[in-house]
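User: Is it possible to get a 3D structure for a protein together with its bound compound? The compound here is magnesium ion. I've pasted both below.
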Amino acid sequence: MKTSEDLRQLLDRIDHRGYPAYKDTRGVYQFGKYVLSIDHVQGDPFAAPSKLSVRVPGRTAGFPKELYDQKHKRIALQDELTRNFWNQIQQYTFQAKGSGKSGIISVTRCSQEILERTACGINPGSGDVTVRFEVGFPANGRTINAGELKKILYDFLPSCVERALYYGRLDKVRIRKVMELSEDQVYIREQLEAMGLVAFVANGAVLPRESGVSQRPMKGAVPFASPKSMEVTMELPYKGKISGMGIPKGVTLIVGGGYHGKSTLLKALETGVYPHIAGDGREYVVTDAAAMKIRAEDGRSIRHTDISMFINDLPNGKDTAAFDTEDASGSTSQAANVVESMEAGARVFLIDEDTSATNFMVRDELMQRVIHRDMEPITPFIERVRALYEQFGISTVIVAGSSGAYFQVADTVVQMDRYVPKEITGPAKTAAKDYPQLELPKEGPGMPSFDRKIRSNPGLKSKGRVKLKTLGRDGVMLNHETIDLRYVEQLMDSEQLTALGNIVKHLEENVFDARKTLRQAVEELYDRMDAQGFGAMCDGSYLPGNLAMPRKLEIYACLNRYRRLGTVAKR
Ligand code: ADP
Ligand code: MG
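Assistant: Yes, that's possible. Here is the predicted structure of the complex:
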């Protein structure tokens, strides 16, 4: 292997030359105890910065095995080390000077959620720690300024690497706490199933966020306190006893006046599918990992989806067992979101009336009298919600402040009262008795058919290399095709969207063959990702440092919003 000295000599040779000469630095170099790899060199000082990685061998990094010997612990430690590295480089970014992006040093900025990311990886066997980051190679105009790059590589980075990634240099109590929290969170998740719950919200949790643009906990918020009747207690391996509200399986209704904290509770349940860092306020809010937010999404495309359990006999005669549209209505989009999530393996639906299509959720008694059932294509969710649970085992948590119709079908009713939940199942059921009984459809819903076969999109391949672009948290582009993901609300981070773009590209280029169904294609890829990590979705020679793992549910959600999804026509 080449050494840091070789690189230094190379840099001296190319100093003051034209920027493209930097390309020669690509390679792997032994830097004292760690290895620096220059994976990709930018074409000019104004382009996206160069991609580098550092690998610290396990014996140098020195993390005790018990801190990363299981996947969840490893991901939590990787997250912590990424944050450390981010903190370290703040004092050095742009300290080396020059034109354009010269001197920038950047790594993923982690969110409140703990996600598996390419920014940092720990090899479970060797304990090697790899960090992937970007550096703007310095130039004056378009002339190489090697002296400034030497500052970064020989002065700044060694200090960052040692202070962020060497166990001996870190606060051992803090690192241990990261592992302990991760273990406790996994324990709660395991207990959910054993206790027949879909979610746990600890007493004392802080659910509201600081603001619409800050995910930090709100200061001075009313801490969460479970109603006594719903309180469960667990004995966590490290924290010990913890009590909180257990939301049971079945149909749970959250009601209450406007502004009393209903949506805030539901949002906490939505993000509770991911673990949160210490101090977030939601670190002991844990939701079934297969819980899916369902909302209306006017204008989305639907490709060959069987929405017949909700929509039938459309006046235009369209087939709703393999429904296609380029521009869905509120109710059809929400129906598709339900059915596609069933295909993806959702076990819990999370629904907020604020973001639902009213005609999808309910049809009131008076309207049923005037417009006969036979004239209405929509079977509203209220008439299916019990069957979804009883036939398919899928629970639902619904926020509904404006209609009492769901009282009849709910197993549990929770009222939010000035941010404090109260269980009111008894009184709600009693009140509902005086109202006309809901008339359920005579037949239960059949399992929708999930047999859509997918062919690859010839248009994409004929253009040669597929170009990916991530539009922040809003969507991804494959060439000129945008996949709108704004309303897939449990995507937390733009890096998850970048990963989804890679996944769609990989499936298009290597998997879709007109024989596999969507489900087969996704399940096979997901199994490979589970075993091989990000390598399974990236075809390049190195891993980029800007990917975060999405859930399987969001892989389905992304493909279902891909307007060019090549569904093969039935019959
Ligand atoms: P709803 O859906 O019932 O109308 P929201 O959940 O939107 O109410 O909450 C209304 C407001 O109250 C929001 O601005 C939210 O940040 C704030 N809020 C929610 N929960 C709490 C809490 N526990 N303590 C203080 N403020 C809260
Ligand atoms: Mg609300």
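Residues 175-450 form a domain with the Rossmann fold fold (CATH 3.40.50). Residues 262-263, 354 surround magnesium ion (ligand 2) (CB under 6 Å).
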